[in-house]
Design a protein that fits this description.
Shape: globular
CATH topology: Cytochrome p450
Strand order of the largest sheet: 1-2-8-5-3
Number of helices: 16
Number of domains: 1
Number of strands: 12
Largest sheet: 5 strands, mixed
Helix content: 40-55%
CATH class: Mainly Alpha
Length: about 450
């Protein structure tokens, strides 16, 4: 990749002098009024401070009750709608012809806006429509097919055992870094056949993809973000060239030699590579951390699980529903249409708030509660719906299942020592730090 790479070739997609919608909302800062203090028109769930302060629940509850298809408009993105009810989300997700993914998966500038700020998050198959979406997805999907996931279960278990056995007893440590990130990053390194000693680079690149630049943040400027993603491209270009000569059964080799992707250079596949990194890192690691947090917040459910470890398979979908590691996905209307009595215009953006749909009381009783025996937890939207359903869902479920099977064999309890530090993002619903102590059996 040359030093003349343009802004549009990198997935940051926002020039240094243009604020992204999340940045525009984040500048509002902390101390966003409680939902009850706002008129319904003033509510905008995109504000990342609602998530870092863990105050999003009431804002979405208001919208579900009073305005489930909710309109907002920002200078940076134009018109967009927040879908907060389960069935509206599922309807939009299932109709790719009317609601396209091709303009990006997070809120962006208005489609067809001229100028550098209009570049979208294209370049990954999650931001494509058929037939290209299916062709590229099929290239890497074999590695996470159920039969292949089963073959790597022993490796997942071996690593979980090693990490859990190394945890200190009686002293506080960060569960996010020590367990969640370590396990998911080792798995990613395996899927990519990535140099194992460099595996934490994958964590770093995953963190900065959707990071909001701010002083003291994950990245402090768009320039820093761009520079680090450029390093990412160069690293993968080296792996790309190496796999051309020495292919394996890893995801990079599949992209290099796939019929639908072999003609493309590594830089053109950065979107796919980052999608696979984020999908394999952010989502699984935040659900692993969320499981510890949730069971501490609902100790009766933790007691129930300890008394009957056979409930782990039921715990898995319920934790994924309760946590919802990616808060939303975006679609763009390809024509004028109607949802929930609201008139949607062609090119309007629609945010499918999975995190709200998974708390919809019309579908999930006592939806804010963790219930590890919930009969319909498997209906959650955290993996999406339709053609973009998460292809790594079985692997994520397997990792969470194995982790808790091994936890219950070793520890009488994992206890959080303070409230977690959360991710400043309205897209990734995650944890930066979670202080815990463990007590061994």
């Amino acid at each position: 990749m040359s030093d003349t790479t343009t802004e549009t070739e990198l997935p940051t997609r926002w020039p240094q002098n243009v604020r992204s919608p999340e940045q525009e909302q984040a500048k509002v800062g902390a101390g966003v009024p409680e939902a009850a203090a706002l008129s319904i028109e003033e509510i905008n769930p995109l504000n990342a401070h609602l998530f870092v302060e863990h105050r999003w629940h009431d804002h979405f509850a208001r919208l579900r009750a009073e305005d489930p298809v909710h309109f907002n408009e920002l200078d940076s993105s134009g018109r967009y709608w927040s879908l907060t009810k389960y069935h509206d989300i599922k309807k939009v997700e299932g109709d790719w012809k009317t609601f396209s993914s091709a303009n990006g998966i997070t809120l962006g500038p208005p489609p067809h806006t001229p100028g550098p700020g209009a570049a979208t998050q294209q370049g990954s198959f999650i931001a494509m429509d058929p037939p290209t979406h299916g062709e590229q997805r099929k290239t890497v999907q074999p590695v996470v097919l159920p039969r292949n996931v089963r073959t790597i279960e022993p490796l997942i278990r071996e690593r979980a055992i090693r990490v859990l056995d190394s945890l200190p007893e009686g002293e506080t440590f960060d569960w996010v870094d020590t367990v969640s990130i370590e396990l998911t990053t080792m798995m990613l390194a395996t899927l990519f056949d990535f140099p194992f000693d460099d595996r934490r680079k994958l964590t770093r690149w995953s963190d900065i993809v959707f990071a909001i630049p701010e002083p003291g943040g994950i990245v402090e400027s768009m320039e820093q973000k761009r520079d680090e993603l450029t390093e990412c491209v160069r690293y993968f270009e080296g792996l790309w060239e190496e796999r051309k000569k020495n292919p394996g059964d890893d995801m990079i080799s599949m992209l290099v030699h796939g019929a639908a992707t072999s003609h493309m250079p590594a830089a053109a596949h950065l979107g796919n590579l980052l999608l696979l990194i984020v999908g394999g890192n952010d989502t699984t690691r935040n659900t692993m951390s969320g499981s510890v947090y949730a069971l501490n917040k609902f100790p009766d459910q933790y007691d129930k699980l300890i008394a009957d470890p056979g409930l782990v398979p039921k715990l898995v979908p319920e934790i994924i529903r309760w946590q919802t590691p990616l808060a939303y996905m975006r679609r763009t209307a390809t024509q004028d249409c109607e949802i929930g009595g609201k008139q949607i215009r062609q090119n309007d953006q629609l945010l499918m708030w999975y995190i709200s749909g998974n708390r919809d009381e019309d579908v999930f009783d006592n939806a804010d509660d963790l219930d590890i025996e919930r009969e319909n937890a498997y209906l959650h939207l955290a993996f999406g719906h339709g053609i973009h359903y998460c292809m790594g869902s079985r692997l994520a479920e397997m990792q969470l299942k194995v982790l808790w099977e091994e936890i219950l064999q070793r520890f009488t309890r994992i206890e959080i020592q303070a409230e977690p530090e959360r991710t400043l993002s309205s897209f990734v619903n995650g944890y930066a730090h979670l202080p815990v102590q463990v007590t061994r059996k």
